[in-house]
Design a protein that fits this description.
single chain, mainly alpha, Serine Threonine Protein Phosphatase 5, Tetratricopeptide repeat, 73% helix, elongated
Length: 170
Amino acid sequence: MRKTHRTFAIAVPCIAGLLFVIATTIIFYKPARTAEQALAAGDYKTANTLFTTDAETGNTDALNALGNLSYLGLGVPQDFLTAAHWYFAAARNGHAAAQLNLGNLYKQGLGVPFDAMRAFAWYTMSDQHGNATAEIYLRQIAVEYTLSPLQINLASKKWRQLTSLVAEGL
């Protein structure tokens, strides 16, 4: 009989503690409500789902974020071509970060053919849309002589407007 009382004396507080933890978790647990919250919490699959919903409404930040998730392979398989498509969808609507990201893909030949002139053109668009980082990449192309001054001039004339660059697709 004494052994049963001792078991009860140990088991009851343990069960009560476990129930407290479960109840507290249920009461205070708040699932991610936005894609940004899911992303910050490291819940990339949920972030991908929520960004996809936002992208369907034409949200360019969501389109760029989906490109980032595909580029990095977070919540989805890593796929540079899919990343390029998401970036292009945002970039053609003037999203400066997506334009920079697309330029990086062209500069590295990831998901799209290597094309330093197109990279330059997308960096230029990103710079024109207010992305200060794009200027660094533009200087890098000039300093590293990835493109000759003649090629830079040609790219500047050929893709002066976003519409002419977008018209060529990926």
